[in-house]
Structures are given as structure tokens and as C-alpha cells.
């Protein structure tokens, strides 16, 4: 469903993603993890057609992202990490625009729009401009837009950003059900407890390179860690958190 | 019909319609496609609509003047050339200053990029967004003159229609040309250099457009408004507005082979521009935006050198403002373009002043020849005001929370912004004017005294502006359509106000030493006291300011 083969993306002289190969099967929630600047968002942007790969190949729902970008885009839903949307529109207007771009029948679009907004408990704000919305409310609109056209593949870059506890719970349940329906979901997040709980497979990358792939249990057992958080810290080479903070406080005292 | 045209252009009609509707909604609500509209704050809608109404009201009033010219002057070719030239200049200004970023900005590609929209549809939707405004503008400007052509020499509908049509097509050609140039930049220039290249190209095009103001009057035979006409020279037909104005001569029944050729030339140019826009320009447009976005995703280039401490902005709020302005100029394309768009005016004013003869000593000759340096002097008074406005608006306005969440003295921030404009714009400008005046006048004391008076007056102008409207730097969301509007107002209304003040100086103050030194002492005292009072007033005023993000 999602497949990359030696995918590489360079920004000028800097390589953001290097020779990355992985595969996400239908019915899988696939966690893509890495420290800040590891290349997760760049990978997602290449797969969603926002950026062109420098080399290698990638396909989504059986279509090459380079050769058939429109076929790919009509089959994917994307929640960007930046929370970018036209805030001057109302949720109704924004979702209507997305529906038009996906050629949805107006009646179908209206029905799904209301269902999604109702699920996230913002149906009452459907006609209010999003300029006044909180971060979480905007995130709910973005998630609704990603699901509106019933995509086969979902790319979620920090989708829980700003969501309240209730909405996050509903959303996590929804993801599990969508995966059970056979959708492929690529999930980027720094909240490792959530990743550990909902992702059936996890890929950790660092400096744009693949480090390890497996289930949460496999990754933990590979280095004898009790939790994914500990395993992640060891794998990505982070120094001991206690030592770092002690050093910092000492430096601040000295200054 | 529209559906067929859009399909003929190779775009998806449904998607084009959705994107165009959204773009217009965003514009009316104070945000615009391609100008980081998704970052805009609320409460701008009324302001944006008001700005648009104000702008088009101004064009309608100017249409009254043009219609009067049509009534007074019987030469349809001459009046048509004036009308069309003005329309082309204003359309070009609109695109250069307000809509340039709509075409080339990758800012909203992160929203629309993942949607299944073809590159051509995307491009044509953006082009439509610009065309809507340029068409509205040409209609507003041209409707009253066209009405005059209709009725003024008996009932002459063909002439009226020709005027309306020629004016609209000239606006369309200008729009297509500039949009093609902008989109062409995306293809030719490496995305990494895009922002800088756009700045320079905009500067060069502004020179060309403002330069039109100087070329056209030179081609007019002035004997009185009613008998003005264009010189009968083939060189005249290098001016594109005459190609479209030839429609009027043909409709008036005075056209010959040359006018037919010019009319056909105008249509051929339009066809070439349309084909060009539909071709490769539209096909790889999305790829180019993607590449431009990738650049902004990449690592930021390190600043070459840390900002020096300088003489004035050494610490505290003033240092913070200096650092901020310097870096915003380097990295904020909109801010840089807004500042750069002022520069061509300055140089052209300089040129226009010198064209009328050498600069004369303002303190000698009782104001004789003072008009040659009038525009230069005007620039010292008015341009810092334009810069001040530019300094307040930014797409990064949400970052202004820092002014409210730190113990910074906001009155000092406002005053630092004023002082920054004064030190880094007024002083260098005065140095250039001073060097020029010295070349012609050779009396350093007179030059220094005149420039000193101008500097203090410019400072008082800014103090008054701050008094009535204190603005924190980069703290307000960019209200669309404000910049070219400001330039148009400055070009038409500003010189009148400045002229009064400057003539009072030249004719009443300078010839009398008592009045001269009395005025100098007076304005120095006013400026000094105003600065002292301003800070206290600002502290009170700014206490009620709230974060706009």
C-alpha cells in the first residue's frame, strides 16, 4: 500500500532522507519515529507529493508518487504537522473546498462533513471562521478533511497535536477501526506511549537513515529495554536525560 | 461558456471553481491565497472589504478626471492612450505590489499540494484570482470615460465599446505579462535564489512602470487641454498603450493601415501571452512551487555576520528592534519588497527634479527654481511615513507576543522603530540629496541648513504619526491591498500636502533670516519636547494594547 525503495531527499548539500526503504501493508498502523530533524516529515511530504524525491522511488496505493501524482493524491488523506489551513474560512467552507477538489457529490460531502464534525464535537462551530479556533479545534478540522473522501491511505504527522483527551481517545479508536477496514496508516508522533499502543509496526529513523523496524515488542527486546521510550533513547543515541539536565543547571548557575 | 473556456485551457472546472471561490473569500476576509493566508488572524474581514471599496472608489474618482478629459479633448486616440496608459500602470502596480506573491509563493502549497489538483488547474486558479481584480480595476477606471465616449459627440456606441474593450484588453495583457514573468522566474531561477531574484526583478519593473510617467508627457504637444494630441512619430508606437488605443481611432473612423496593424499586433501579443501561460509555465508550475517549498524546508542559511552594535541601537529595546528589522529585511520577502518598492520612486523623483534644470540654492533667490528640488524634499518628508507603515505589518505578526510577555517597555519599542527609520533611511537619503545639492549649489552652509530643517521636519512628521497611531514593529497582520494603495495616495495626494509646506519654507521662511532662525529654533524645540512627551503618552496608550495574534 505504501512502499519506498532507497528513497532519498536532499536539500541542497544536506541529505534529509537517505536510502530509506520500507513497506506499509493494508490494515497496518505504521509508526514512523525519530528525533527532531530525523527526516520523518520530509518522508511524509515526499509520499504525499509535496516534495519530489532526489532519488529512489515511492508508491502509494500502487501508484508511483512521481509518475502518477494525481492518482496517489486522490487516494490519500494527510494531516500535516504544521496545522496549515485557511483560517479565514469556516470548517464548512474548508471541507467543502476539499470535497470539491476530490470531486465528491455535494450531498455525500455534506453528509460526511456533518458526521465527521459531529464526531469531533465541533458541528456547532461549522459556520464560524477558524481564526478564532483553538489549535485543537483546527486539528479536528484537518483530521476531518483528511478522512472526508474515505482515503485508502492515511498520512498522519503528529495528528494528536492539540487534541483534547476525549477527541484523542475517539481518534485513536477510529484509527484502529480504519486499519481493521484495510486502510494503511502512516503515523508520525513523538508521543511514544501512543505509538506503542496503536502501531502494529514501527520504523525508527535518525539523520534520514533507517535504524530499526519491527513491532514495539521486537524493538524493545532488541536492546533489552522495558519501554519503547527507553529503547528509542538508546537507539537514537540520546545522552542520559538526568545527566543532561544536571549539566544544564550547573552551567546556568555558573553564568 | 466559462466551463468550456476553463476546459479548453486544460483545467478541471470543478476544482478551478472551488479554488477560485476560496481565493476570493480569503481576499474579502483579509487573507489571500499564496500570501500565507492560513496564518491570518480574525477580525480583518471588514477592514479588507473597506480597503477594497476605498481603493476602487479612488479609481472611480480618477475615472471622473479621465472622462472629463474625453469631454474636453476631441482626439480619441490621445485620450484613449492616456486612459489605457494609466490603466496599465495601475494594473502593473497592483500585481507588482499586492499580487506578486500570489503567483510565486509556495506558502499554501502545504495545504493544496496533497490534494489531487493538476498543475495547470492550480496555475489557472491563481491566474484567475489576479484577473478578477485587474478586470474590476479596469472596469472601474474605464466605465466613466467609456460613458463619455458613448455620448459626448452624439450617440457613438461603437467608440464607447471600443474604449471599454481596449481598456480591458490592455489590463488583461498587462496581467498576463506580469504573471508570466513571475511564473517564469519560478522556472528560470533556482528556488534557493527565488526570493532575492523576485526583489530585484520587482525593482527593475517598478522603474519601467514609473518611468512611463516620464516618457508619456514628453510625447504630448501641450497647447491647452482641449487641443492636446500625441506627436506623430513612429517611435510613439513602441508604447504598448497606443496599440490598444488604436481601437478607438478605428472606431472613430479615422484609422488607417497603421492603426489596423497596431490593433492586430495587440491581439497577437495577447494570444502569445495566453498560449505561453497555458503551456509549460502551467504544466510544471506545481513542481516549481514544490521545489520552492523544499528550499524553505531546508536548513536556514547562517547569517553572514552578527549585527554590529552601531552607534545608536546599542542595547535594550532599540537593539532588539534593530536586530529584528535587519533580519526581517533579509528573510521576509514581503517586507523587503515593500521597502524596495519605495526606492524607484525616490530615484525617479530625483531624476524628475533634475530634468527641469539644475537644483537651485533654497536659501537664495527667494524660492526661484525651488520647484526642481520639490519632489526630492517631499520624499524626505513622506517616504519615512510609508516605511513606518510597512514596518508594522508582517506575516510573522504572531511572534509579537514577545512584546507582551516580557518586561520590555513597549513605548521604547515604538520609538525605536521610528528612530530606526530615521537613522537608516532619512539620514542616508539626506546624504545623497546633500551630495547632489552641493554639486549644483556649492554653498555647504546653505545645503546643511536646508537639510537640517528637512531632517527635523521629517522627524516631526513621524512623531505626529506615532502620536496618533503608535505601531509596534511587525505586530499587525498584513491587510491585503494596503501597499499599492499607499503608493497611489503618496503619488497623488502626498505631493500636494508637501508642496504647501515646502513652498512656505522657500517663499516665506528662507528669505528672512529672522524667520529662518526662528523657525529652526521652533522646530528643534517642538521636536525635542514632542519626544519627551511622546514617551509618557505612549506608555499610557500602549498599556491598553493587546496582542493581535
Tags for this entry?
heterodimer; A: 255 residues; alpha/beta; Rossmann fold; 2 domains; six-stranded mixed sheet; four-stranded antiparallel sheet; 10 helices; 10 strands; 41% helix; 24% strand; B: 549 residues; mainly alpha; 2 strands; 1% strand
Oligomer: heterodimer
- Mean pLDDT of chain A, to the nearest integer, reads 90
Unreliable sequence segments of chain B:
31-44
Q: Give the CATH level 1 class of the largest domain in chain A.
A: Alpha Beta
Tally of separate helices of chain A = 10
**Mean pLDDT across all amino acids of chain B:** 78
Q: Supply Rg of chain B.
A: 25 Å
Order of helices and strands of chain A: EEEHEEHEHHHEHEHEEHHH
What is the total number of structural domains of chain B?
2
Can you summarize the main beta sheet of chain A?
6 strands, mixed
Radius of gyration of chain A: 19 Å
CATH topology of the largest domain in chain A: Rossmann fold
Supply the helix-strand structural class of chain A: alpha/beta
Write up what this structure looks like.
The complex is a heterodimer of chains A (255) and B (549). Chain A contains ten helices and ten strands. Chain A folds into two domains: 2-75 and 151-254, 3-Layer(aba) Sandwich (Rossmann fold); 87-149. A six-stranded mixed β-sheet of chain A has the order 6-7-8-3-9-10, with helices on both faces. In chain A, strands 2-1-4-5 form a four-stranded antiparallel β-sheet. The termini of chain A are far apart. Chain A has helices at 40-47, 69-74, 91-101, 106-119, 135-147, 165-180, 192-198, 216-222, 228-235, 241-254; strands at residues 2-11, 14-24, 29-33, 55-60, 63-64, 76-79, 153-157, 184-188, 201-206, 209-214. Helices cover 41% and strands 24% of the residues of chain A. By secondary structure, chain A is of the alpha/beta class. In chain A, β9 (201-206) and β10 form a beta hairpin. By secondary structure, chain B is mainly alpha-helical. Chain B has two domains: 10-31 and 43-297, no CATH class; 316-542, no CATH class. Chain B contains 22 helices and two strands. Chain B has helices at residues 2-8, 13-28, 45-72, 76-104, 109-112, 119-151, 157-188, 191-215, 240-251, 257-278, 280-283, 285-297, 316-331, 333-340, 343-355, 374-392, 401-405, 410-441, 444-468, 482-492, 494-509, 513-542; strands spanning 220-221, 229-230. Chain B has a two-stranded antiparallel ribbon. In chain B, a hairpin with a 7-residue loop joins β1 (220-221) and β2 (229-230). In chain B, α3 crosses α6 (119-151), α4 runs antiparallel to α20 (482-492) and α6 packs antiparallel against α7 (157-188). Chain B starts with a helix and ends in a 7-residue tail after the last helix. Mean pLDDT of chain B is 78; it is low at 31-44. At the A-B interface, α2 and α3 of A face α2, α5 and α12 of B.
Amino acid at each position: 500500500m505504501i512502499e519506498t525503495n532507497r528513497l532519498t531527499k536532499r536539500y541542497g548539500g544536506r541529505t534529509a532522507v537517505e536510502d530509506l526503504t520500507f513497506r506499509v501493508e493494508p490494515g497496518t498502523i505504521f509508526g514512523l519515529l525519530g528525533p527532531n530533524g530525523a527526516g520523518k516529515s520530509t518522508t511524509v511530504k515526499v509520499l504525499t507529493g509535496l516534495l519530489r524525491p532526489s532519488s529512489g522511488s515511492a508508491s502509494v496505493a500502487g501508484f508511483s508518487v512521481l509518475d502518477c501524482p494525481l492518482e496517489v493524491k486522490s487516494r490519500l488523506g494527510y494531516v500535516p504537522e504544521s496545522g496549515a489551513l485557511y483560517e479565514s474560512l469556516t470548517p464548512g467552507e474548508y471541507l467543502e473546498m476539499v470535497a470539491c477538489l476530490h470531486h465528491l457529490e455535494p450531498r455525500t460531502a455534506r453528509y460526511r462533513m456533518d458526521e465527521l464534525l459531529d464526531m469531533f464535537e465541533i458541528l456547532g462551530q461549522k459556520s464560524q471562521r477558524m481564526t478564532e479556533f483553538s489549535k485543537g479545534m483546527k486539528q479536528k478540522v484537518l483530521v476531518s478533511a483528511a478522512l472526508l473522501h474515505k482515503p485508502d491511505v492515511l498520512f498522519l504527522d503528529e495528528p494528536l497535536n492539540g487534541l483534547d483527551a476525549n477527541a484523542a481517545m475517539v481518534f485513536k479508536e477510529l484509527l484502529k477501526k480504519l486499519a481493521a477496514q484495510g486502510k494503511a496508516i502512516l503515523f508520525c508522533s513523538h508521543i511514544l506511549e501512543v505509538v506503542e499502543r496503536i502501531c502494529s509496526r514501527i520504523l525508527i529513523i535518525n539523520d534520514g537513515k533507517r535504524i530499526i523496524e519491527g513491532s514495539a515488542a521486537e524493538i524493545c527486546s532488541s536492546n533489552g529495554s522495558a519501554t519503547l521510550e527507553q529503547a528509542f533513547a538508546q537507539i537514537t543515541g540520546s545522552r542520559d536525560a538526568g545527566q543532561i539536565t544536571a549539566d544544564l543547571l550547573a552551567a546556568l548557575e555558573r553564568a | 461558456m466559462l466551463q468550456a473556456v476553463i476546459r479548453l485551457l486544460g483545467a478541471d472546472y470543478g476544482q478551478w471553481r472551488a479554488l477560485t471561490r476560496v481565493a476570493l473569500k480569503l481576499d474579502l476576509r483579509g487573507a489571500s491565497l499564496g500570501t500565507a493566508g492560513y496564518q491570518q488572524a480574525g477580525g480583518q474581514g471588514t477592514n479588507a472589504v473597506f480597503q477594497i471599496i476605498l481603493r476602487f472608489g479612488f479609481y472611480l474618482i480618477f475615472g471622473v478626471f479621465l472622462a472629463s478629459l474625453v469631454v474636453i479633448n476631441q482626439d480619441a486616440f490621445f485620450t484613449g492612450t492616456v486612459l489605457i496608459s494609466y490603466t496599465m500602470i495601475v494594473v502593473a502596480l497592483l500585481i507588482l505590489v499586492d499580487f506578486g506573491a500570489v503567483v510565486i509563493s509556495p506558502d499554501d502549497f502545504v495545504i493544496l499540494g496533497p490534494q489531487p489538483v493538476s498543475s495547470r488547474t492550480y496555475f489557472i486558479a491563481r491566474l484567475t484570482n489576479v484577473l478578477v481584480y485587474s478586470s474590476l480595476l479596469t472596469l472601474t477606471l474605464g466605465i466613466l470615460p467609456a460613458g463619455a465616449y458613448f455620448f459626448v459627440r452624439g450617440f457613438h456606441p461603437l467608440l464607447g465599446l471600443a474604449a471599454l474593450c481596449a481598456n480591458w484588453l490592455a489590463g488583461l495583457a498587462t496581467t498576463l505579462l506580469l504573471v508570466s514573468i513571475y511564473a517564469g522566474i519560478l522556472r528560470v531561477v533556482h528556488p534557493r535564489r527565488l526570493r532575492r531574484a523576485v526583489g530585484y526583478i520587482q525593482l527593475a519593473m517598478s522603474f519601467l512602470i514609473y518611468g512611463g510617467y516620464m516618457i508619456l508627457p514628453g510625447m504630448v504637444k501641450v497647447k491647452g487641454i482641449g487641443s492636446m494630441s500625441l506627436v506623430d512619430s513612429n517611435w510613439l508606437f513602441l508604447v504598448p498603450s497606443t496599440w490598444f488605443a488604436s481601437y478607438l481611432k478605428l472606431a472613430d473612423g479615422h484609422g488607417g493601415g497603421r492603426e489596423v496593424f497596431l490593433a492586430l499586433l495587440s491581439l497577437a501579443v495577447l494570444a502569445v501571452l495566453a498560449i505561453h501561460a497555458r503551456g509549460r509555465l502551467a504544466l510544471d508550475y506545481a513542481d516549481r512551487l514544490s521545489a520552492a517549498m523544499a528550499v524553505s524546508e531546508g536548513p536556514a542559511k547562517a547569517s553572514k555576520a552578527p549585527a554590529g552594535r552601531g552607534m545608536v541601537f546599542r542595547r535594550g529595546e532599540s537593539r532588539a528592534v534593530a536586530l529584528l528589522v535587519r533580519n526581517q529585511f533579509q528573510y521576509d520577502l514581503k517586507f523587503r519588497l515593500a521597502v524596495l518598492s519605495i526606492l524607484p520612486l525616490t530615484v525617479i523623483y530625483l531624476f524628475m527634479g533634475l530634468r527641469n534644470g539644475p537644483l537651485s540654492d533654497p536659501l537664495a533667490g527667494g524660492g526661484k527654481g525651488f520647484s526642481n528640488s520639490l519632489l526630492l524634499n517631499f520624499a524626505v518628508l513622506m517616504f519615512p511615513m510609508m516605511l513606518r507603515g510597512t514596518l508594522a505589518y508582517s506575516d510573522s505578526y504572531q511572534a509579537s507576543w514577545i512584546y507582551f510577555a516580557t518586561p520590555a517597555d513597549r513605548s521604547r519599542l515604538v520609538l525605536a522603530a521610528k528612530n530606526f527609520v530615521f537613522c537608516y533611511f532619512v539620514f542616508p537619503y539626506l546624504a545623497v540629496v546633500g551630495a547632489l545639492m552641493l554639486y549644483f549649489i556649492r554653498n555647504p552652509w546653505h545645503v546643511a541648513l536646508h537639510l537640517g530643517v528637512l531632517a527635523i521636519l521629517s522627524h516631526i512628521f513621524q512623531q505626529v504619526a506615532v502620536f496618533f497611531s503608535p505601531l509596534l514593529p511587525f505586530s499587525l497582520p498584513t491587510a491585503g491591498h494596503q501597499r499599492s494603495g499607499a503608493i497611489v495616495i503618496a503619488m497623488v495626494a502626498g505631493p500636494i500636502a508637501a508642496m504647501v509646506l515646502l513652498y512656505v519654507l522657500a517663499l516665506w521662511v528662507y528669505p528672512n533670516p529672522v524667520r529662518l532662525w526662528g523657525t529652526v529654533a521652533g522646530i528643534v524645540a517642538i521636536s525635542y519636547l514632542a519626544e519627551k512627551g511622546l514617551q509618557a503618552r505612549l506608555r499610557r496608550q500602549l498599556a491598553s494594547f493587546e496582542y493581535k495574534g
